[in-house]
Specification:
4-stranded mixed sheet; two-stranded antiparallel ribbon; binds zinc ion
Length: 185
């Protein structure tokens, strides 16, 4: 129900992360953020705020009043974000995958000391995963489509939820070079 649906910007207008509407309203009420654009879709909060005679429309984008420092490399490893980053396709054979067929391959295998990190994990089909086993890609004669990197902010959005994507977000969420962080409270 309370999915992330509000884009939070830093005071310098750089995108930080997607947050829930509850968290966005809390930041607004505490005066820690300002509304940049509004969400036009109905919200569970509409009725509540009408009833307390202080109607709040849910924002689509808000901006912090004070800049917070973010470390771009702190985003916690999460499978779904990895699947989004690799566009749900096997990084060896390009096959399209879903929740039932997706697996994760450690490029440097765990048995050789490979860690579960953004730069060592890629989306892989079951078949390629079996063939690669505990070898390096070159040892298994397999080639990665691209080098794995930290995810960008856009990968934190549920891409199956395209209808909820706000056009104005594209102004702030540059599909290139933006990293996310999960430490803002
Ligand atoms: Zn494959």
């Amino acid at each position: 129900m309370y999915m992330p649906r509000v884009l939070l910007l830093n005071a310098d207008w750089s995108p930080l992360q997607f947050i829930s509407d509850i968290r966005a309203l809390r930041l607004l009420m505490k005066g820690r953020a300002e509304v940049i654009t509004l969400d036009e879709t109905p919200s569970v909060w509409d009725e509540y705020y009408t009833s307390v005679s202080c109607r709040y429309q849910i924002p689509a984008t808000i901006r912090l009043q004070l800049r917070v420092n973010v470390n771009p490399s702190v985003s916690r490893f999460r499978k779904r974000i990895l699947y989004n980053r690799d566009d749900w396709s096997c990084q060896y054979c390009d096959k399209k995958l879903n929740w039932n067929t997706v697996t994760i391959d450690h490029v440097l295998p765990k048995s050789k000391g490979g860690k579960t990190t953004w730069r060592n994990c890629v989306v892989c089909c079951k078949c390629c995963n079996r063939i690669k086993g505990s070898k390096l890609p070159q040892e298994a004669n397999m080639k990665l489509k691209k080098q794995p990197t930290e995810p960008r902010l856009i990968h934190f959005w549920n891409l199956n939820d395209k209808h909820n994507w706000h056009n104005d977000w594209t102004t702030f969420v540059n599909p290139r070079g933006i990293y996310s962080c999960s430490t803002i409270e």
